[in-house]
Design brief:
Layout (H helix, E strand, L loop, with lengths): L26 E4 L5 E4 L28 E5 L4 E7 L12 H8 L3 E4 L8 H10 L15 H14 L3 H5 L3 H15 L8 H9 L5 E3 L3 H9 L3 H16 L3 H11 L3 H12 L5 H24 L5 E6 L9 H7 L3 E4 L1
Helix pairs in contact: 3-8, 5-8, 9-10
């Protein structure tokens, strides 16, 4: 099933200012044994032995499962990794099995992640597509009870009512979830897909499956009822506190597909428009992604694919679709 607001990375997370304690710059460094580690200052400032515990965490044991799969067929090899649209420093360094798969791949494939954009980039999306051109407000496009809930959650998060008042429901959903993630200790700057792109961009070609503009148009094309359901999903989750972010992070860390699917299913099961939203935002998209990835893999090169974790799991997830196309999957 589907985490609608993550798309929402599929799509979690807009206008909140990043916490001052988190640096936007992360440096990839090598220690004396040529082991990779990450830190928030230029590499010459620290050795790996001097790193604080949260940056020098050793890789998981060889027997641990990761949110990474090797898909093999006569056509070629694809590594498929699920990512979250947010992260924290102690998620790094990534396990060696991940960095080795990435290093051994010829091409990196990513999906545009509207939830993991910078504040400035998301502000541009909000300005161009996330507001009403007729200058009407959110309160005029949702039920009174939904608007009251928006005001309650905004106050709880410390967001000015005027900020969310000008946004369409899908954009308000992203804005509120981004701020909730921030207050739970997670930011898009430490999202796995962003870190992987930063690691690979100087060494191998990167193919983007879709664009932020396409994602925004997809969300903007939802009916007002569907957008309101998406907003309600975010509001309900935020009211439950940081549990969603913690459960998703724990499931991702443990390579637990059932945990990720369960966390997303809980978000959508009670929504009357859930089936339509899942079809538009997940089922149709994973079908198109599987076709593109399979076509690319036919050239014999090894590909490393990083997509939001929700796209991978479930009956209509990317992993099942690759299996149906003849790929043998093994979780690493």
């Amino acid at each position: 099933m589907f985490h609608l607001t993550t798309l929402a990375r599929l799509f979690v997370s807009i206008l909140a200012v990043l916490p001052t304690s988190v640096s936007a710059d992360v440096y990839k460094c090598l220690d004396k044994k040529n082991k990779v580690f990450y830190q928030d200052r230029p590499c010459q400032d620290l050795t790996s032995a001097q790193l604080p515990p949260e940056l020098s965490r050793s890789a998981d044991s060889a027997n641990a499962a990761h949110f990474l799969w090797k898909a093999s067929s006569a056509q070629g090899t694809i590594y498929v990794m699920g990512a979250l649209p947010y992260g924290e420093k102690d998620m790094y360094p990534l396990p060696e099995v991940v960095t080795e798969a990435l290093s051994g791949s010829d091409v990196l494939i990513v999906g545009a992640n509207i939830a993991a954009l910078s504040e400035a980039e998301l502000l541009s999306v909000a300005t161009n597509q996330g507001g009403y051109p007729d200058n009407s407000g959110l309160s005029e496009h949702v039920k009174a009870a939904t608007w009251e809930k928006v005001l309650k959650v905004s106050k709880m998060l410390g967001m000015a009512a005027e900020t969310v008042r000008t946004q369409k429901p899908w954009m308000a959903s992203l804005s509120l979830m981004r701020l909730a993630a921030k207050q739970a200790g997670y930011t898009p700057e430490f999202s796995v897909d962003k870190m992987v792109v930063k690691d690979a961009q100087m060494r191998k070609p990167i193919i983007q499956l879709d664009s932020v503009d396409e994602q925004a148009k997809l969300l903007d094309g939802l009916s007002e009822i569907e957008q309101e359901q998406m907003l309600l999903q975010s509001l309900n989750e935020i009211e439950r506190g940081a549990e969603f972010f913690k459960s998703m992070t724990e499931a991702w860390t443990n390579g637990d597909t059932s945990g990720v699917e369960l966390a997303m299913r809980r978000r959508s099961d009670s929504l009357p428009a859930a089936d339509k939203l899942i079809k538009v935002l997940l089922t149709d998209r994973t079908a198109a992604m599987a076709e593109k990835i399979t076509d690319l893999a036919a050239d014999g090169r090894t590909y490393f694919v990083v997509l939001e974790a929700g796209y991978l799991v479930g009956e209509h997830g990317l992993l099942k679709r690759l299996q149906s196309k003849g790929f043998e999957l093994s979780q690493l």
